[in-house]
Specification:
Blueprint lengths: L23 H31 L12 H7 L7 E3 L18 E11 L8 E12 L1
Parallel strand pairs: 1-3
Antiparallel strand pairs: 2-3
Length: 133
């Protein structure tokens, strides 16, 4: 006997979504971890670069004042600051190539208008001394 169609609908259950490898919360947590790691690497790299290039032992010439800085320090014009040219011989690239185990240090001679320390500065002479490392 043929069966009569019933009034009830026989809709199948909605298909289940396949199990994904990660949920939305996992993706957000992974993104935060990656962002934290990237910023950490950038900050550590920046600190490393600053230490390497601002270390006075490695680059003593970087922190030595020039004519302009000395003129400002002693309230002079740049014409009143006499600076000898820095001698060659201790740089890595000077012949013969390699570390020479030396560096040059500034030597200041401050000439005042009178002999007391409170007198204004008249001139500044800058010369260089060779020091062994």
């Amino acid at each position: 006997m043929p069966s009569e169609p019933s009034n009830e609908s026989t809709d199948p259950a909605p298909p289940e979504e396949p199990n994904s490898l990660s949920t939305g919360e996992d993706k957000v947590a992974l993104g935060g971890l990656l962002r934290f790691g990237l910023w950490g690497v950038l900050i550590v790299g920046a600190v490393y670069v600053l230490v390497q290039f601002l270390a006075p032992e490695k680059h003593p010439d970087l922190l030595t004042p020039g004519k302009y800085q000395l003129a400002l320090k002693y309230n002079l014009t740049e014409d009143q600051v006499y600076m000898d040219a820095k001698p060659k011989g201790c740089d890595f690239t000077d012949a013969p190539l390699g570390d020479k185990h030396c560096h040059f240090e500034q030597s200041l001679n401050v000439v005042r208008k009178c002999l007391t320390p409170d007198c204004p500065v008249d001139r500044v002479y800058v010369s260089w001394r060779k020091l062994k490392d």
